[in-house]
Every structure is written in structure tokens, then in C-alpha cells.
Design brief:
By secondary structure, the chain is mostly helical. It is built from 10 helices and 2 strands; from the N terminus they run ααααααααααββ. Strands 1-2 form a two-stranded antiparallel ribbon. Strand 1 (339-345) and strand 2 form a beta hairpin.
Length: 366
């Protein structure tokens, strides 16, 4: 008994990852199963889509000057957080299952820190957007007068706080010196840290929901007044549409992340009695889908964003077609005169083989 008590309360940093998993009773797969391959393939596919979709949002905000306002810079930073989340999930997929046994403690902490950083960055961005909207909506302005310098400092602060929160478990708040405090979901994490982290995020959710509810009520009252003044009607409707889009983003975030946070909270409070390992993967999948939801919301709710997306895709298609055309011209054994090439625009040509009908073509303009 004395030996076991000493083991639980002594800081022994020689234990590996497998030891902690065995200690809390969380099994690590010995060999890959068909189900593991399906989960890995599906998970990586979703991660790639998440990365590409959020990268498109960031490019759209950068390209379109109509999006060069504080609110869109913050939404672009949220897209960066979702892109980072996609990378974090991909790293998790590539270091899970039987591969978990090969991880060092440092690699395991990095795997968890990436997820923590992405969540903290998303929550902090949503809170920053809520504050920005509150300041502008109360004065019935469409965009904040916040300077670009302040926006940049705010974004840097968001990521600095996120990195600090991600590093806390690996540096000062883990269970390596108190094995009885080990989590069953994340065996090297302290259950007390999970309680603190889950409660902090849930409270932030409630604050943001209450803030947005107040803003929406205020906007609705102002819209009723603006409907009597034609000159203010368009401005008011634009504010309402933007608020609805942001509210949908917040709602999707709360819906997707609340099950996971509640799972962590129950694990922190009850430990093994919570049986959190039986449904933690489902909560993780739901949380992962949130990073894919935001680009869909933007494309469905914002006409300007949708047009910018189409412009980006068309540009990529034209470049791809141009590269294929150049490769065909280089690889073609026919002389240059055998191809009837007609200039469409500054960067697009229409090329066709016209050995027998060359004389019938005089010009083509599209």
C-alpha cells in the first residue's frame, strides 16, 4: 500500500505514454482494423476539405477590397483558426490507433496542444467578434472604426493567449506527479485542468450567446424604426444580414463544441465513472465538422463572398486550362501553322486544329 501511494504521488518522468493509458484503463489498438482504416481515410479527407475551404475564405477576404474591414479581418482570423484545426486533426489522425504506442510524451503533448490552441483561438475570435459587433451595432454602424493596427494587435493577442493555453498542460498542469488526477480521455492531462478549461469555455459560450441575443433584440427594434425611413432601410437590412450570418457561425460553434466540452467536464468530475471513452470519438467528429461549417455558412449567407468564391474557382480553372494548353503545344508534333489559335483575351486563347478548315476561320471572339 505504501509503495502504491508513493507511486501515485511521486514525480516520475520516466513513464511512457503507454503507462498512462494502462493506468487509466484506456486501451491502445495493437493492430489496424478495417474500421480504423475507414476512420483514418474519412478523417483525413475531411481535414483536407477543411483546409482548402478555409484557405479559400482567407484568400477571398484578402482579394476583395469590400472585405477590408475589422469584422472581416476577424472572420478571416477565425478561418485561420479553422484551417489550423484541420491541420491539428490531420496530425491527430496520423498519430492515433496503434501509432499512439510509438509517441513520446513530448509528441503526445504536441498532439493535444494543437487541438487546444485551435479551440482557444476560435473561442477568442468569436468573443472578439461579439465585442466588435456590440460596439458598432449600438451606434447602428455597419463597420467598426477600429484601426488596422489595433486589429493586428488584437489578432496577435488572440494567438498568443491560444498558444499559452495550449502549452499549459505540457508544462505546469498535468498528472505526471499525481496519477490519481489523470484523465481517462486524455491520460496525461490533469482532470482539474479539464474542469477549468471546459468551464471557462462554456461560460464564454453563455456570455457570447447572451451578448448576441441582446444585439439581435436591439437590431430588431431599430429595424422597425428604420422601416419608416426609406433612406435608412438598406443600411439596417445589411446590418441585420451580417448579424444573422455571425449568429449562425456562433450557433454552429456552440452546437458542435458543447458535447465535447461536456464530455471533458464529466471526465474531470467523475473520472472512470463517466465512461467518457465510449463516446469521446463521436464528440471529436462533431467538433471537427465545425471547422467545415463556417465556409458553408459564408457561401450561403453572403452574396459577395459567394461571388468571390466563384471568381477564385474560375481563376484557378483558367490557369489550369492554360497550363494544359501549354503542355499540349510543347508535346504536339504538329507544326505551329497547323493550329488555328485565336486570342480570346489578355490571358486566354482558343486553339483548335484546322488542317482541313483553316480557310473557313477568319476570326473568333468570345
Amino acid at each position: 500500500m505504501a509503495t502504491e501511494s508513493s507511486l501515485r504521488n511521486t514525480c516520475d518522468y520516466s513513464h511512457n505514454v503507454t503507462f498512462f493509458y494502462n493506468w487509466v484503463g484506456k486501451s491502445i489498438s495493437v493492430a489496424w482494423t478495417p474500421r480504423d482504416f475507414v476512420v483514418l481515410g474519412l478523417g483525413l479527407t475531411i481535414c483536407i476539405i477543411i483546409i482548402l475551404a478555409n484557405l479559400m475564405v482567407m484568400v477571398a477576404i484578402f482579394m476583395n477590397r469590400r472585405f477590408h474591414f475589422p469584422i472581416y479581418y476577424l472572420l478571416g482570423n477565425m478561418a485561420a483558426a479553422d484551417l489550423f484545426a484541420g491541420m491539428a486533426y490531420a496530425n491527430l489522425m496520423l498519430n492515433t490507433g496503434p501509432w499512439t504506442r510509438m509517441l513520446t510524451k513530448e509528441q503526445w503533448y504536441i498532439r493535444g496542444a494543437l487541438i487546444d490552441i485551435s479551440l482557444t483561438a476560435s473561442v477568442a475570435n468569436l468573443l472578439a467578434v461579439a465585442v466588435e459587433r456590440h460596439q458598432t451595432i449600438i451606434t447602428m454602424q455597419l463597420h467598426s472604426k477600429m484601426t488596422k493596427r489595433r486589429v493586428v494587435l488584437l489578432i496577435i493577442s488572440i494567438w498568443a493567449v491560444s498558444v499559452i493555453m495550449g502549452l499549459v498542460p505540457s508544462t505546469i498542469w498535468n498528472c505526471e506527479c499525481d496519477l490519481d488526477d489523470c484523465s481517462t480521455v486524455a491520460p496525461l492531462y490533469s482532470r482539474r485542468f479539464l474542469i477549468f478549461w471546459a468551464v471557462l469555455n462554456l461560460l464564454t459560450f453563455f456570455i457570447m450567446v447572451a451578448m448576441y441575443a441582446r444585439i439581435l433584440i436591439y437590431v430588431r427594434c431599430q429595424s422597425t424604426y428604420a422601416s419608416q425611413h426609406t433612406s435608412e432601410m438598406w443600411h439596417s437590412q445589411t446590418v441585420v444580414n451580417l448579424m444573422k450570418t455571425i449568429s449562425m457561425v456562433l450557433g454552429a460553434f456552440v452546437i458542435c463544441w458543447t458535447p465535447g466540452l461536456l464530455t471533458l467536464l464529466l471526465d474531470g468530475l467523475l473520472g472512470k465513472a463517466s465512461h467518457a471513452n465510449s463516446y469521446e470519438k463521436f464528440c471529436l467528429v462533431i467538433a471537427e465538422c465545425n471547422s467545415l461549417v463556417n465556409p458553408i455558412i459564408y457561401s450561403l449567407r453572403d452574396d459577395e463572398m459567394r461571388r468571390t468564391f466563384k471568381s477564385i474557382l474560375c481563376c484557378l480553372c483558367r490557369r489550369s486550362a492554360g497550363q494544359q494548353r501549354e503542355l499540349l503545344e510543347i508535346a504536339s508534333p504538329l507544326p505551329q501553322e497547323a493550329l488555328g489559335c485565336v486570342q480570346k483575351s489578355e490571358d486566354q486563347t482558343l486553339c483548335t486544329e484546322t488542317n482541313n478548315k483553316k480557310d473557313s476561320w477568319t476570326a473568333a471572339s468570345l
